[in-house]
Structures are given as C-alpha cells and as structure tokens.
User: Which sequence fits this backbone?
C-alpha cells in the first residue's frame, strides 16, 4: 500500500465512523454543534496519533495474550494527559471540551487502529494511519454535526441564521443523531457503490 | 505473529506491570506539572464568578461556612465600609442535575433579591443542558433581580415562575434547586448577621 493511500484511506474508503462504524458513542453524543465536533475530532486525532506511535514502537515487546490491557493502559494514559494539560494551560478550551475528553478512552477507533494497524506496521505508517483516521473521524463528526446543528438549532458554528421557533428539536436530541447518521451512512454507501460500478464498467470496456 | 514462541506467564506479568508503571510515572509527572495551573485557573474562575454575582460591590469579603441540611456551604459575605451587609455570594450546588451535580455561585443583595448567578462547575449535556451557561442561552438571566420570597423557584411545568430550557427540564429544575438552596442559606446567614 502506498504511503498516500495509508493516509487517505481513513478520509473516505475506510472512514472510521461512516464505513467501519467504530466510535459511535462520540459520533452520536457530541455532534449537537459543529464546534463540539471539531474539538472532539482534534482531541481524538491527537490521542490516536500518540497511541499509534507508542503501540507501533512496542509491537515486538507486548505479548499477544496481554495486548488489549496494554493498549488500554497506553490509551488511557494519553487521554488523562490531554485532559490535565488542557485543564491546566487552556482553561477556555477545557470549558467547551471538558466533558468529552474522558470519553475518548471508550472510543473504539483508538483501540481498533492499535489492534488492526499499529501492532503490525512501522512507526511511520502508523503515524500516517493515525492522522488519516483522525481526520476522517473529524470529517464525519462535522458532517453529522452540521446537519444536526442547522436543522435542530438553526445555526452553524454558533452563528444563528434560522429563528429558534422554526428549529426542529428532535435533531438536537438522541433520535435525531441516529436519523442523521443513518442517512449519511446510506449516502456514503450509495456514492461508493456508484464509484465502484463505474470502475467495473471501465474495466469491461477496456477489455 | 503466529509462529512466535508462546511467552511464559512471568513475561506477561512483567510486560503489563512495567507498562502500567511507566504510564503511572508519566501521569504523575504531568499531574505535578499541571496541578498548580489547574488550581490557579479554578481560583481565578471562582473570584471572577464572585465579582460577577456581586455587581458594583466595593468592600470586604468575609467567608463563612454554613452547615445547611448536612452540607457545608461556603458563603462569601459582602460587607460594605460601614459594616453593613451589602449581600453575599453563595457557593451552592445541586445533586439533581442530569449529570449528577453542578456548582453555582449565586449573588444576593441584603434583601435576598437575586443579583446574578454564575455556573462554577457543570458537565451538563452539550447542546441541551449546557444552556444553563450564560454564553449559550439566556436561561440563567431570568433569575436576576427577582426575590425568591415571591418568585417561585420552580419551572412553569411544576407551577413555578421559571421558563425551563427546551428539552432540558431536568437541568432547569436542578438550577432552580441550587438557587433555592442558596437563598435558604443566605436567609440563614442574614438572620445571624450582626453589625
């Protein structure tokens, strides 16, 4: 696999939340506004990157039988560090993000990438994979959050442009999250199928 | 990976223990490094909240701890130059919040009229319950300049005077609960106050 492909596969083809269906908890819970989505995405990307680096470095040291507890310890350490550092040095950011940071530990994407990629590949490839997956996750969070914020709160990134009496409340609530996520997933599938059909047609024509 | 020799139990224990140890050490370092700044920023936040809930006050603050229904509540009494009670900032809380507990600072004038309220620490649901914060919605502003003696601190659904946040009735009820507690504590402090 080329280096570019390792980086970009997370954006679309193996998008963690829309295609691999990992990390559903934050995807559903924090996507009430675009600002939250960006913050959560950035924090997750950082943790993903760091844990991928460490796990890839330690891949020959950690025995198979205890790998899951080892990965969880490493991931939880980074999450706690991020939490403390943000609280101490960026109190304003901690106010808007504080509640989500501890949630990253339970995000399956981080553990999923450790298990599926970082423990088999080189450090550099793992960095690319962590970055790509993190960016892909952020993109999908922003997609879901944009739809929910526009329909549910009538605003985009906190900027109100639809008066509050026309807002559709359900999109801010949990059922709205499931609805939006379902539609976006279906759309993604549809686009991917179309692209693949076209590729097949081309191959047939070339023959 | 499959052809690797099965490691012995001791190696498993050693590896896991040392990883946990290193992680623990790293965390201790970061904690020691961030402890000061975290405490400082929390102190600054409380000081800012206190000056926000007592607008226009210029005098000395006297702190007292009041035991109210089994809980210790910190009251910052605002005493003006003549030794008269200007009002107080009460560090109140509620256990009825959606996420369990949140902490508020409520300012009263010497009559018991609410001057202002400020969230100190809360982790309500983003997009719903976090509208108790003033920068997210106007919910908290409706308490200002009302006297709880005639202003019923309950949401309209329960027959009170407070308009709840849409879809966050629990957080709104909790806010009322915290303010009510602050009011009760303040009335107690006011009774006990001698110039």
Assistant:
């Amino acid at each position: 696999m080329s280096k570019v492909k390792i980086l970009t596969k997370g954006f679309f083809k193996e998008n963690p939340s829309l295609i691999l269906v990992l990390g559903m908890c934050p995807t559903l819970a924090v996507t009430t506004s675009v600002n939250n989505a960006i913050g959560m995405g950035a924090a997750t990307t950082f943790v993903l990157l760091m844990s991928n680096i460490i796990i890839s470095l330690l891949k020959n040291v950690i025995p198979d039988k205890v790998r899951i507890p080892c990965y969880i310890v490493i991931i939880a350490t980074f999450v706690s560090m991020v939490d403390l550092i943000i609280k101490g040095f960026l109190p304003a950011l901690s106010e808007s993000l504080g509640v989500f940071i501890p949630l990253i530990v339970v995000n399956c994407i981080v553990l999923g990438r450790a298990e599926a990629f970082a423990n088999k590949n080189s450090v550099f490839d793992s960095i690319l994979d962590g970055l790509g997956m993190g960016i892909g996750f952020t993109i999908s969070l922003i997609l879901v959050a944009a739809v929910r914020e526009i329909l549910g709160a009538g605003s985009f990134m906190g900027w109100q442009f639809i008066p509050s009496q026309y807002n559709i409340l359900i999109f801010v609530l949990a059922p709205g999250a499931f609805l939006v996520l379902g539609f976006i997933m279906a759309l993604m599938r549809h686009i991917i199928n179309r692209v693949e059909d076209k590729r097949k047609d081309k191959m047939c024509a070339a023959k | 990976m499959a052809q690797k020799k099965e490691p012995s139990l001791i190696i498993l224990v050693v590896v896991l223990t040392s990883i946990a140890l290193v992680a623990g050490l790293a965390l201790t370092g970061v904690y020691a490094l961030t402890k000061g700044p975290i405490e400082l920023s929390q102190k600054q936040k409380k000081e800012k909240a206190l000056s926000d809930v007592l607008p226009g006050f210029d005098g000395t603050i006297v702190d007292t701890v009041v035991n109210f229904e089994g809980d210790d509540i910190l009251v910052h009494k605002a005493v003006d130059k003549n030794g008269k009670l200007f009002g107080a900032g009460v560090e109140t809380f509620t256990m009825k919040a959606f996420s369990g507990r949140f902490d508020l600072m409520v300012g009263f004038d010497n009559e018991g009229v609410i001057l202002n309220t400020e969230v100190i620490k809360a982790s309500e649901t983003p997009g719903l319950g976090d509208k108790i914060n003033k920068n997210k919605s106007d919910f908290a502003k409706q308490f200002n300049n009302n006297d709880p003696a005639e202003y019923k601190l309950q949401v309209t659904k329960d027959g009170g005077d407070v308009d709840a946040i849409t879809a966050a009735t629990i957080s709104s009820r909790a806010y009322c609960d915290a303010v009510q507690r602050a009011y009760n504590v303040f009335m107690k402090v006011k009774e006990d106050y001698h110039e």
About this structure: Chain B touches chain A at residues 1, 4, 7, 11-12, 15-16, 19-20, 23, 26-27, 30-31, 33-38, 41, 45, 99, 123, 125-128, 166-167 (CB under 8 Å). Chain B has a mean pLDDT of 86. The longest strand of chain B covers residues 85-97. Helices of chain B lie at 9-53, 169-192.
